Prior knowledge:
Elements: E1 25-26, H1 27-33, E2 39-45, H2 48-51, H3 56-72, E3 77-84, H4 94-106, E4 109-112, H5 115-118, H6 136-146, E5 151-154, H7 162-173, H8 185-195, H9 208-215, H10 219-227, H11 244-250
Parallel strand pairs: 1-5, 2-3, 2-4, 4-5
Amino acid sequence: xxxxxxxxxxxxxxxxxxxxxxxxxxxxxxxxxxxxxxxxxxxxxxxxxxxxxxxxxxxxxxxxxxxxxxxxxxxxxxxxxxxxxxxxxxxxxxxxxxxxxxxxxxxxxxxxxxxxxxxxxxxxxxxxxxxxxxxxxxxxxxxxxxxxxxxxxxxxxxxxxxxxxxxxxxxxxxxxxxxxxxxxxxxxxxxxxxxxxxxxxxxxxxxxxxxxxxxxxxxxxxxxxxxxxxxxxxxxxxxxxxxxxxxxxxxxxxxxxxxxx
Length: 261
């Protein structure tokens, strides 16, 4: 399986998720860095109340993550592990260890929705201290518990804060300034299909300038669309996806209102 290192900084600085994130990658970066690897999903809730009767709420949350991963990487999902366990260092993590072992055995990228699913600081308190990040010592303990050889990635960027997540959600529905004519759903798909996939350096198969000329659209409008959030994927833009046309197709019927850029 692809190895990410044994100790210390385990990925290049330009892909680093931050000094306190233990080398956890943003999923688009992980897919570019390890294009041949499949994916295992890990998801957890902290209490049986959050899991719901018969774990119905947990299953629903995991299903949402599955859909998001399939939009990022169609055909790459190999395994899913979910459970009820806390994310603090002092907590027992049998489901996390199970997921880590599956990822290790089959050479998979282990994916969670965000950093908090992998690890919460011992000092975390939902009401009094919800923005606290895991300490370097806690991150080291976490990595030593599951192993430094496992590729970890999150759908939302691992450095994003609770406040930033809320801000992103607000920006998606905020309406201000001059109204632009909504981008037609068919035009949105034509843009993504014409651009093709992105290579390891982030370049489109066909440049934005060529696509703009071909479709008769301003390059700036195409760029605004690529900078816009993907419906249902918090913190992810169309340009973050390796193959956005494939992801667009899996969204099903997309309302034009979400493509206003």
